[in-house]
Design goal:
The structure holds 2 protein chains of 2 kinds.
Chain A: H1 20-70, H2 78-94, H3 98-114, H4 117-129, H5 132-140, H6 145-157, H7 164-167, H8 176-189, H9 193-200, H10 207-219, H11 237-249, H12 256-262, H13 268-281, H14 287-294, H15 299-312, H16 318-327, H17 331-344, H18 370-378, H19 392-410, H20 413-421, H21 425-435, E1 442-443, H22 452-455, E2 465-466, H23 519-537, H24 563-568, H25 579-588, H26 626-641, H27 647-656, H28 660-688, H29 695-702, H30 705-718, H31 722-731, H32 736-759, H33 767-781, H34 786-790, H35 806-820
Antiparallel strand pairs in A: 1-2
Chain B: E1 4-8, H1 12-24, E2 28-32, H2 35-44, E3 49-53, H3 61-71, E4 78-83, H4 87-96, E5 100-104, H5 108-120
Parallel strand pairs in B: 1-2, 1-3, 3-4, 4-5
Classes of the chains: A mainly alpha, B alpha/beta.
Chain lengths: 821, 121
């Protein structure tokens, strides 16, 4: 049996034997991974959107509160004020959460971009009052560049000028983003920022950065730019370049020599900027330097130099420019050189390329038809004599030449060529004479007319009269004549027209008319001049202003002046007529100069200042007894040398003393020392209590008792050491309820601060505490029993907010990172 | 005098701020955050003055001016809010019939004065 094998039973490649279970396992694995992936995606997407929603919601909640703060007015109603206080308390509670603080910062930053004026100022104030700038300071300490940049941006945008010192340190940060942000912040926050920046920056200032800084400077109000020439010597070439640009921007043209020197700089950009400055300020003295560096410069610089020379160059520079034109190979430089020559000396170089040498100026036939021409010529009136004061001889010659040339040009080329070839003089003469037939006939007699040819050698152009006649060209068919036509409508008025343009020949000698001088006019002018002069010199109309010497009256007790001598002092008085009088005079006589009656009294006499001699009554002497005298002297010593420590002694004296004068003196001294005591107390308070002011202080100053009480109920929960001073002030409040409440709150707050300090026991006792000890002593001194305060109930409120350590931060960061991936 | 003011802007924070300021002056303020809502509102109510941002989703400030002037045929004052450097759009808005414009950043008090000026014309 024949069997045909159609394929080789032994396959070259065999399928691998994979266990079906493994395949199922792998399938499950990949499906599981896919599901996991989708779950992750779903989870993070939801998380992000939830967060966004939360942020949006928070912002919505916050915006009316912020509006309330921004538009709060002190003249608001009581309800509004109460509401405002409640909001302040609410927002303080709200800000205890870091997330909320971040949201509020974002809201304020967003709003600061959109609003301006007083609202913007209120916004900045609120930002600081809520201590949000402290969060931005914290950001500056981060190791992540984007956080630091955000912090700087936030502080810059919210105009926290106190942060200037922290930010300028980062001008030379290795990380570009931080550095650039710090540069802008430095320039923005303070006027002197630009000087510091240019002094200290070591890195490149990019073009974009330069533009941004310039924009900041331009938008700065009341900015007085420093003299930027001081940075032209900087080691940082970018500073030099930027300074040049700033010099140009602020038109500081007092650095001529430095700028000219910078033209020799190796850096092309600086060189170019310096040349542009030279061009801008027109430094003529820079031309030699520019010529010097020209040949070794690049094409761009050469063009810039030529551009500058076109502005500052003189005719002495033309040989140099011609040299460039001849030697320079670069087309652009050559063209620029030509344009510079033309701008220094216009029309010195005329166009030469592709210019036609002989141009036939043919007038098209359709401009004036022969009929029109005839009619126009017929209308020209006879005996019109036109005078030309210009050189008639030259005119005549020019006309003849022109006509001759034109006529010859217009002869048919063939005929002329034939005539020339055949030396046909007759033809040529006829052609010329024919061509000149239309000319006006010039004669030395009005009645005698001769041809041009005959008259030409005899004509004395100065003695020629031209008679316009009806002239009909005999051979106009072959000759095209171009001439202007005088409009014949003018008859009588012709003499009044300006006909200077016409080629006129006249026999009359044109005499220059002597200038008619009207002696009357002369007189008038003379008079005017004299009047003017008189007007200039006459200053009678001016009010006479002069110093009136006043005698300073000295106290009578120290008068050493001899009254008789005073009488001899010369004084000048003036009597100026009242304004009413002046006005009436002005109204009555328009042309008359106001006459101010000034009477100068040259006589030596006292008119106004008189010293009243008074009789001085001398008090009678009062004599004290010895004890009284000693006591008074002691009190005087105490007054001069003593201080608050003398109070107990004085009080003791006051009890014992019976003498009225001494008692009065003691009371005076006691009052003085009590005042001193209160001032000292205040000073101690101001020195020891933190200089930071509470945001509630302003509130308390403007609210009523009820509001104060409401606020005091909540104050301990939201307060810190800043509120100590406020509470101390409130202890002295006019209202008893407020005083009591304030005392209670003060006690609670102190306890709270103590608790906080115990928690941070590693930290040294803050200065505020030391002050409290002093304060207690002061209270004891003033008979305020400290036991009353110490017996008050203390509410312990835990407000300890511990800053996370580095490890904690690291842990939180790693966990966040893990969450993300 | 109480007037109906329509504020149209997608920046809800700013709108909220302006709303507060205008309400404080005793006006009745409605705010919408996109062009669609503006159309819906205008089909039902006619305000005394419209304050609109030039850049809004769905329906820009210029389109709003066109819609009010050419479709609704209303002559109510329209004040356009624009960001700095957007002068071309402002010109277009003026050509279509906007009455005034104010550029960001602006003072809410200034806007209030402009609104008052338009209302008293």
């Amino acid at each position: 049996m024949l069997s045909i094998n159609t394929h080789n039973p032994r396959a070259l490649i065999t399928a691998p034997k994979i266990h079906t279970d493994l395949l199922w396992d792998l399938s499950f694995l990949f499906v599981g991974l896919a599901l996991l992936y989708f779950l992750f995606i779903f989870y993070f997407r939801n998380k992000l959107s939830a967060k966004t929603k939360k942020v949006t919601q928070k912002k919505k909640d916050l915006s009316p509160i912020i509006s309330e703060f921004l538009f709060f007015e002190e003249e608001s109603s009581k309800d509004e004020k109460t509401n405002y206080i409640q909001l302040k308390i609410e927002i303080r509670q709200f800000l205890k959460d870091t997330f909320n603080r971040r949201i509020l910062s974002e809201v304020l930053l967003d709003l600061s971009i959109d609003v301006s004026g007083s609202t913007q100022k209120s916004l900045f104030k609120l930002y600081k009052e809520l201590d949000l700038h402290k969060d931005a300071y914290a950001k500056l300490e981060s190791w992540r560049w984007e956080i630091v940049s955000k912090g700087i941006l936030e502080l810059t945008q919210m105009q926290v000028s106190e942060s200037y010192g922290f930010i300028i340190k980062r001008i030379n940060d290795k990380r570009g983003t931080i550095r650039k942000q710090a540069e802008i912040a430095t320039v923005t926050l303070k006027h002197e920022g630009i000087s510091y920046f240019l002094d200290s920056t070591r890195y490149k200032i990019s073009e974009w950065q330069q533009l941004k800084i310039l924009e900041v400077l331009r938008n700065k109000k009341d900015f007085n730019p420093p003299k930027f020439k001081q940075w032209l010597t900087s080691n940082n070439k970018y500073v030099v370049l930027f300074s040049l640009r700033l010099i140009k921007h602020y038109n500081q043209n007092d650095a001529e020599l430095s700028i000219i020197e910078l033209v020799k700089h190796k850096n092309t950009q600086i060189k170019q900027e310096a040349i542009l400055c030279i061009k801008e300020f027109g430094f003529m003295s820079a031309t030699d330097t520019l010529k010097l560096i020209f040949w070794n410069s690049s094409t761009d610089i050469k063009i810039t130099i030529l551009s500058a020379l076109s502005e500052i160059g003189k005719e002495e520079d033309l040989p140099f420019l011609n040299q460039i034109e001849n030697k320079e190979r670069n087309f652009y430089v050559k063209s620029k050189a030509l344009s510079t020559i033309n701008s220094i000396a216009p029309e010195t170089i005329m166009p030469t390329q592709e210019i036609e040498k002989n141009i036939a100026h043919n007038t098209p036939d359709d401009i004036i038809t022969s009929e029109e021409q005839d009619s126009l010529i017929e209308e020209i009136p006879e005996n019109v004599v036109i005078k030309d004061a210009e050189n008639p001889k030259e005119h005549m010659e020019n006309i003849e030449d022109e006509i001759l040339n034109d006529s010859i040009h217009e002869l048919r080329q063939e005929e002329l060529a034939l005539a020339v070839n055949s030396n046909d003089e007759e033809f040529l003469n006829r052609a010329i004479s024919d061509s000149l037939d239309f000319l006006p006939i010039v004669t030395d007699d009005e009645n005698k007319m001769v041809t041009n040819q005959d008259s030409k050698p005899k004509v004395n152009p100065e003695d020629i009269i031209v008679n316009f006649q009806k002239v009909v060209p005999t051979k106009s068919t072959n000759i095209q004549v171009e001439y202007s036509i005088v409009t014949p409508n003018i008859t009588n008025e012709i003499s009044s027209l300006n006909l200077d343009f016409l080629p006129i020949v006249t026999t009359k000698v044109i005499e220059e008319k002597p200038v008619e001088i009207n002696p009357l006019n002369l007189e008038v002018i003379g008079e005017e001049i004299s009047i003017e002069k008189k007007e200039v010199l006459n200053v009678d109309f001016l009010p006479v202003i002069y110093d009136v010497i006043k005698e300073d009256k000295e106290p009578l007790s120290t008068v050493d002046i001899d009254i008789l001598n005073i009488k001899n002092i010369p004084t000048i008085s003036e009597e100026i007529s009242s304004s009413k009088e002046l006005i009436s005079k002005e109204e009555n006589s328009e042309d008359t100069i106001l006459d101010i009656n000034i009477e100068l009294n040259n006589e030596n006499k006292i008119t106004t200042n008189t010293i009243v001699e008074e009789e001085f009554s001398i008090p009678k002497a009062i004599f004290s007894d010895k004890r009284e005298l000693e006591m008074l002297s002691l009190l005087e010593d105490l007054n001069e040398l003593g201080d608050v420590r003398e109070i107990p002694l004085l009080e003791e004296y006051l009890v014992k003393e019976k003498d009225g004068i001494i008692r009065d003196r003691i009371i005076e001294l006691l009052e003085k020392f009590y005042k001193e005591l209160s001032t000292t107390k205040k000073e101690i308070k101001m020195d020891d209590v933190t200089t930071e002011t509470s945001i509630l202080e302003e509130l308390f100053a403007n609210t009523d008792t009820e509001s104060k009480l409401i606020l005091l109920n909540e104050i301990v929960a939201v307060s810190d050491k800043k509120e100590l001073k406020l509470l101390m002030d409130l202890v002295d409040d006019e209202d008893e309820r407020v005083r009591e409440k304030a005392k209670k709150c003060l006690k609670q707050l102190k306890a709270q601060i103590e608790a906080k300090n115990k928690a941070n026991s590693l930290e040294p006792i803050p200065l505020e505490y030391a002050f409290l000890e002093d304060y207690k002593a002061e209270l004891q001194k003033n008979n305020i029993n400290p036991s009353k305060i110490s017996n008050l109930d203390i509410e312990e409120v835990s407000t300890i907010t511990k800053e996370p350590s580095f490890l904690e931060q690291f842990y939180s960061f790693s966990s966040k990172l893990f969450d993300k991936f | 005098m109480k007037k109906k003011i329509l504020l149209a802007d997608d920046d809800e924070l700013l709108i909220s701020l302006l709303q507060f300021r205008l309400k404080k002056e005793g006006h009745e303020v409605t705010f919408v955050s996109n062009g669609k809502q503006v159309k819906e509102y205008l089909n039902n109510t006619i305000p005394d003055v419209i304050v609109s941002d030039i850049m809004m989703p769905y329906f820009s400030g210029i389109e709003l001016v066109d819609f009010v002037r050419n479709e609704l045929k209303l002559t109510i004052p329209i004040i356009i809010i624009s960001s700095a450097g957007n002068e071309e759009n402002v010109l277009s808005a003026f050509e279509l019939g906007a009455n005034d414009f104010i550029s960001k950043p602006f003072s809410p008090t200034e806007l209030l004065l402009r609104i008052t000026k338009e209302l008293t014309k």
